[in-house]
Write a structure and sequence with these properties.
about 150 residues, two-stranded parallel sheet, 1 helix, about 10% helix
Length: about 150
């Protein structure tokens, strides 16, 4: 289901008022401007977030498993404790994002920019990256379980 920015913001507001977990699984949110939106704990599994601006968004504890985040802007986003297993983060901007304790098992990180991101306790088992992926200084992706993939 394709949603517009105003629809997403209204759904966020209603879920907060009702104390419910926001369910946006399998929704098409591609290209939306959701800068700074509070999506803490939201279910965004299998959602299409291609090119979506989620800079400074609160995605703490959100489920983004199998989500498509190709070229998404997650600059300074709060992703602590989020689940991004099998997410497609091809060329995503994750610079200065908080990924403490996040799960990125088997995620596609080819060309992603994680410069200055907080990766403390993040799980990268089976995540794929290439020579275009940017990691924080001193971070060893292979020691964290990520797998190098030759760029095509």
């Amino acid at each position: 289901m394709r949603l517009a920015e105003n629809q997403v913001l209204e759904m966020v507001k209603l879920a907060k008022e009702r104390g419910e977990r926001l369910d946006l699984r399998q929704c098409d949110l591609s290209g939306l401007g959701l800068f700074g939106v509070d999506l803490e704990g939201a279910n965004l599994s299998q959602a299409d977030l291609t090119g979506t601006n989620l800079a400074r968004a609160n995605l703490r504890g959100a489920d983004l498993s199998s989500a498509t985040l190709v070229q998404a802007d997650l600059l300074e986003a709060g992703l602590a404790g989020a689940t991004l297993d099998q997410a497609n983060l091809f060329q995503a901007l994750l610079s200065r994002a908080n990924l403490q304790g996040a799960r990125l098992r088997a995620a596609d990180l080819e060309g992603a920019n994680l410069d200055h991101a907080d990766l403390n306790g993040a799980d990268f088992q089976g995540a794929r990256y290439d020579d275009h992926t940017t990691w924080p200084a001193g971070f060893d992706p292979e020691a964290a379980g990520a797998l190098f993939q030759v760029s095509s």
